[in-house]
Amino acid sequence: MFKSVPHSETLLSIAACCGTPTYVYFDDILSEKINTLKHHLTGLPLQLLYAMKANQSIPVMERMKSEGLGIDAVSPGELLLALKMGFPKEKILFSANNMTDEEMHLAKKHGVILNVGELSRLEKLGKAYPGSEVCVRLNPQIGAGHHKHVITAGAESKFGIPVEQIEAIKTIASTYSLKVRGLHQHIGSGILDADTLWKAISVMLSTSLLFDDLHFINLGGGLGIPYKADESGLPMHEFASKIVAPLQSFIKQHPAKHLQIWFEPGRFFTAECGVLLATVNTIKPTEHITFAGVDSGMNHLVRPAMYGAYHEVVNLSNPDGPLHRYDVVGNICESADFFAKGRMVQQLREGDLVAVLDTGAYGMSMANSYNMRSLPAEIFVDAPCGEWRVIRQRKTAESIAENALNGL
To answer: Is residue 333 annotated as part of the catalytic site, yes or no?
Structure first.
């Protein structure tokens, strides 16, 4: 059983026109995911942010802006792009990890609120900008995620100030007259269990009672999506029933007035809207394994190599073909370069077009030009008309070599 391929005819048309490797993003799926989360959080004084590290493609960002979302920015480049695109500064949270002095000054210059996850940085902010408003990132000591490398809270995590150090936070804030306007958590990525999320939220809520002038509690992102055909996504009705009503009740009792609840998903919004197209160029049978080599690689989608992440691989050219077992591998000079191992796929032939699904998050945003290979082209398919446009061209080998000679 395979996951359904979104708009397969459109994908075939794009590949015929633009070649491969190519990322394709569908605006209708992106919009549907945004509206799904909004719907299931109805009734809360809500502000949604977009964790733009998931996908910084300009049309994706424009969709977020048109839907009224703010931005969670984790680097100066992300911050400046969000500002240049017109996201209001009051809807931008600057969450650089292990923030430098230069990054702190840049964020303050542009008037965005800093999300600080280290006591030393909180003190440096206080010394440089006494009386500032600030958001504090806490580690609720509860972590979750699809792989140990994406768990961003708990005893072994580098992220956030341990909740046990709350008195130190208050002492620094008092010393420098810092105004703690927000509290933030993010416990990990790919969470499919509302109960785990609520445990961490509960820690945040109880801690927030120690601050009587909060403007928001940012409960993070990490909401998962189903990568496998037999996998269930985050049960949204359960998510709403276990989170919305308790949050509504809590807000009414909180000493802070006009308290908002923030969420900052990235993957939940964008993963399912994206497809990576590649062409099979090699079929190599061996005694134990049949390798199917494609014209893309781990430099374009690193998640399988880095996390052992699962992405469905579907043969668009032979969708009804008999199933065979393959290692679907890339063209990078590394043994870790693969998309799928021991995977049943419709019979692959040299020249066939394959779709790697759910690659709209942490695909292109983590891509690189290792082996001096070009980044993929990017295509955005507008809704509701279904017309598509090229938003990034592939580079030629000649231009890559010339840029290297010129220090570009």
So the answer is: yes
Q: Cα 204 from chain centroid?
A: 22
Residue 1 lies in a domain: no
- pLDDT band at residue 142 under the 50/70/90 scheme: low
Place of tokens 């030009």: 369
From the CB of residue 375, how many other CB atoms can be counted at a distance below 10 Å?
A: 18
With CA atoms as reference, report the closest residue to 81 among 369, 219, 72.
Answer: 72
Extended beta strands in 252-376, E state: 260-263, 274-285, 290-294, 313-315, 323-329, 338-346, 353-357
For residues 85 and 203, membership in a common domain is answered with yes
Q: No. of H helices and E strands in the chain?
A: 12, 18
Share of the chain above pLDDT 90, in %: 82
Examine the pLDDT at 214 and tell me if it is beyond 60. Answer: yes
Does residue 129 lie within any of the structural domains?
A: yes
Q: Letter for the amino acid at 390?
A: V
Q: How far is CA 335 from the centre of its chain?
A: 26
Tell me the whole-structure pTM to 2 decimals. Answer: 0.94
pLDDT of residue 233: 85
Q: Which of 247-256, 322-331, 383-392 has the highest mean pLDDT?
A: 322-331
Active-site pick, 17, 135, 273, 333 = 333
CA-closest candidate to residue 47, choices 55, 36, 37, 33: 37
Provide the residue range defining the domain that includes 298: 8-22+271-402
The 10 Å Cβ neighbour count of residue 268 is 26
Q: What is the CATH number of the domain that holds 397?
A: 2.40.37.10
Average the pLDDT over each of 66-75, 168-177, 243-252 and give the range with the smallest value: 243-252
Whether 373 and 288 map to the same domain: the answer is yes
> Are the beta carbons of 356 and 278 closer than 8 angstroms?
yes
Q: Are 272 and 233 in contact, with CB atoms under 8 Å apart? A: no
Q: Domain count of the chain?
A: 2
Three-state secondary structure of 1-25: CCCCCCCHHHHHHHHHHHCCCEEEE
